[in-house]
């Protein structure tokens, strides 16, 4: 009975299984009929590359050479026995683990058990190995051991050098013309770039009496443009990187591929370009900040951007030989063209807050805050010797800002300080209340760098040095009692107050590049108030306004200044106004959705000091010559204008005569169309007019009759 029941169950299960399979086959056949065909046609051409689809993954794909390129050889290490080997390993590991994860180490030994004086290290990636070779080659362990570090793959490369030298492929030279051609303008007109049309159009103008376009292109840049420090290159921003343009026709000189680039900075010598992109960075291959060689387009070095910092993160010295960045308790100074740390180590400064280079000398100024019983201090050091030139101790410091004069003669440190207030019930207990301000003025050119101090009780809104000279100005106070005070540093160490201008609408100071003249500007919230001041005799030359102005820019010569209303700041009344240094309006240029104006910088003059003094001495002679040229130019311009008007009038007369002749020739056609009625004479026939008089009430007057 049990056997029969089991057999029955098996038979039932078998029947259900066959039915289920038949249903599945039916469903599959139905799906095959309903399923569309996703196969490509025979003539389909797949033009999408693997790099476009899987670029991020393919870059991480291991290469056969990775295992070899991740290994380095460290030569000239101490030869030690087994008893000191462990200590040597710890020293080596501590040194090289800074550059990445050390996967494996190997120390060859002699028959007696002593090391052979070299060893092998394997890193987790070739990038880490490359960084280790770059930073530790030449490292001095002690007086007798200076490391020689090389890639393991270099040995094979040098062994397999061919017997016959093969010259490299020479790239064809592309002549873009003279990149300094803008300096050869006969009339010495400066150039400036303008972005307008919501960023759609970019134009280069000549600052002639009537500004004229030298070049204009649509969608030249995606965000904004920037000139190099000496005006040689124009940089444009794109999603995939930066492009540099130059020459008489603004030809493309070089491209730098950096995805998502947002910020750039040039070295003062225009040899190097620094780019920054906030996109995701790679730990093995730093991509956030890249330094490029401008002439070759080669990436010189990449850096990570670990924390938020103000741009530029790297600060260059005056000639581009050094650049530095601030780190945790250190200032890292790098050399060019090696792009390695100066002397293989950073400058250790505990709790350093900020630093800046002198604009003319290899001097770094930095400041550190108060810690425990140690006062805050400002220190000046010389590079590369790292010699301390001056140290200034400061107390009750809240913050410091450093301002170098353009000529490098003076340094001003604006110190925000707390007021000490003693409690009445406890004489020993001190609390801080309010903030006052000090200007610590360092005389860089004098012996032992003496320091002067100027105290300001009111809130300091702005500070600016005269670029050439010994004067400086500051805006202080709070609205509506804002004042501007001018100071002058005397040769014997006395700081003289020249004048205080009270109740001013100003929040920015703009000195002329040649000094003496300054513009006090109340931008944005202060409605564009402009005040032109001659600081030689402290006279107010002009008080005017460019309503809602957002920007003010001096030209490189100090003869003209531009005020502008940018579409990025305000959506109406966009455009720029051109003024001379006295505040006389020269030109108004409204532009729809105007965004940015930048003057093209000029390189330093090739004339020596003696030649410049001679020109200034004989200035009247040169002035007469230029005045004569200006009058001739005006006469030529007037003559050209008259000739143009005569030409236009003559063209109009010819056009009128042609149309009158056509009108007379078509009279018969008009008569035929109007059934013989001459409509040309209707306006001269009195029968075609009728006179009609219309009366309407204008005013009602009431007269009062006196009894």
TrEMBL record:
InterPro entries: EIF3B, eIF3B_RRM, Nucleotide-bd_a/b_plait_sf, RBD_domain_sf, RRM_dom, TIF_beta_prop-like, WD40/YVTN_repeat-like_dom_sf. Coiled coil: none annotated. Its main location: cytoplasm. Residues 10-26 have a biased composition (Basic and acidic residues). Residues 70-154 form the RRM domain. One of its GO terms (molecular function) is translation initiation factor binding. It is found in: Cytoplasm. Residues 27-48 have a biased composition (Acidic residues). GO terms for cellular component: eukaryotic translation initiation factor 3 complex. Gene3D superfamilies: 3.30.70.330, YVTN repeat-like/Quinoprotein amine dehydrogenase. Residues 1-48 are annotated as: Disordered. It holds the Pfam family eIF2A. CDD domains: RRM_eIF3B (cd12278). The keyword Lyase does not apply. Keywords: Cytoplasm, Initiation factor, Protein biosynthesis, Repeat, RNA-binding, WD repeat. Transmembrane segments: none annotated. The keyword Cytoplasm applies. This is RRM domain-containing protein. The lineage of its organism: Eukaryota, Metazoa, Spiralia, Lophotrochozoa, Mollusca.
């Amino acid at each position: 009975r049990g056997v029969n029941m089991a057999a029955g169950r098996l038979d039932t299960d078998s029947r259900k299984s066959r039915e289920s399979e038949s249903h599945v086959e039916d469903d599959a056949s139905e799906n095959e009929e309903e399923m569309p065909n996703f196969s490509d046609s025979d003539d389909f051409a797949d033009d999408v590359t693997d790099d476009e689809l899987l670029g991020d993954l393919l870059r991480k794909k291991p290469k056969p050479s990775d295992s070899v390129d991740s290994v380095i050889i460290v030569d000239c290490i101490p030869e030690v026995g087994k008893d000191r080997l462990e200590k040597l390993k710890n020293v080596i590991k501590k040194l090289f683990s800074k550059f990445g994860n050390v996967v494996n180490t190997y120390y060859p030994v002699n028959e007696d058990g002593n090391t052979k004086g070299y060893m092998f290290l394997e890193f987790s990636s070739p990038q880490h190995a490359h960084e280790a070779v770059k930073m530790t080659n030449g490292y001095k362990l002690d007086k007798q051991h200076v490391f020689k570090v090389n890639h393991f793959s270099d040995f094979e490369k040098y062994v397999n050098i061919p017997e016959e030298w093969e010259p490299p492929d020479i790239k064809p030279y592309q002549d873009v013309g003279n990149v300094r051609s803008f300096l050869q303008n006969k009339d010495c007109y400066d150039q400036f770039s303008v972005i307008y049309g919501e960023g759609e159009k970019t134009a280069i103008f000549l600052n002639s009496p009537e500004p004229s376009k030298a070049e204009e292109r649509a969608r030249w840049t995606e965000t904004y443009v920037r000139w190099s420090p000496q005006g040689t290159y124009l940089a444009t921003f794109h999603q995939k990187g930066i492009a540099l343009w130059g020459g008489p026709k603004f030809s493309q000189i070089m491209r730098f591929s950096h995805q998502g680039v947002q910020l750039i900075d040039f070295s003062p010598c225009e040899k190097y370009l620094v780019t920054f992109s906030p996109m995701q960075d790679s730990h093995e291959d730093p991509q956030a900040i890249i330094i490029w060689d401008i002439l070759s387009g080669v990436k010189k070095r990449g850096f990570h951007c670990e924390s938020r910092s103000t741009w530029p993160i790297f600060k260059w010295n005056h000639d581009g030989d050094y650049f530095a960045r601030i780190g945790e308790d250190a200032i890292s100074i790098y050399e060019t063209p090696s792009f390695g740390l100066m002397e293989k180590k950073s400058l250790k400064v505990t709790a350093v807050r900020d630093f800046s280079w002198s604009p003319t000398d290899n001097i770094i100024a930095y400041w550190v805050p108060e810690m425990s019983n140690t006062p805050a201090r400002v220190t000046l050091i010389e590079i590369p010797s790292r010699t301390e030139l001056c140290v200034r101790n400061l107390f009750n410091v809240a913050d410091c800002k450093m301002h170098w004069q353009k000529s490098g003669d003076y340094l001003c440190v604006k110190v925000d300080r707390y007021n000490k207030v003693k409690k009445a019930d406890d004489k020993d207990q001190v609390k801080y209340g309010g903030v006052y301000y000090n200007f610590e003025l360092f005389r860089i050119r004098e012996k032992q760098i003496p320091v002067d101090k100027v105290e300001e009780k009111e809130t300091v809104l702005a500070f600016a040095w005269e670029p050439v000279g010994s004067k400086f100005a500051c805006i202080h106070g709070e609205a509506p009692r804002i004042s501007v005070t001018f100071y002058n540093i005397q040769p014997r160490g006395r700081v003289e107050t020249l004048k205080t201008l009270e109740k001013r609408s100003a929040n920015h100071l703009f000195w002329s590049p040649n000094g003496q003249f300054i513009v006090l500007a109340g931008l944005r919230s202060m409605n564009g108030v402009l005040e032109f001041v001659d600081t030689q005799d402290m006279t107010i030359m002009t008080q005017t306004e460019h309503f809602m102005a957002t920007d003010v820019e001096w030209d490189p010569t100090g003869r003209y200044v531009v005020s502008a209303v940018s579409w990025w700041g305000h959506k109406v009344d966009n455009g720029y106004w051109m003024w001379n240094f006295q505040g006389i309006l020269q030109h108004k240029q409204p532009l729809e959705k105007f965004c940015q104006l930048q003057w093209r910088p000029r390189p330093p003059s090739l004339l020596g000091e003696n030649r410049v003094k001679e020109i200034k001495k004989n200035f009247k002679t040169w002035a007469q010559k230029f005045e004569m040229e200006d009058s001739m130019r005006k006469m030529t311009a007037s003559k050209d204008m008259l000739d143009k008007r005569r030409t236009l009038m003559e063209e109009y007369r010819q056009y009128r005569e042609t149309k009158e002749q056509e009108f007379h020739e078509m009279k018969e056609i008009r008569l035929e169309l109007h059934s013989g009625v001459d409509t040309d004479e209707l306006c001269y026939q009195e029968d075609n007019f009728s006179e009609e008089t219309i009366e309407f009430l204008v005013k009602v007057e009431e007269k009062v009759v006196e009894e």
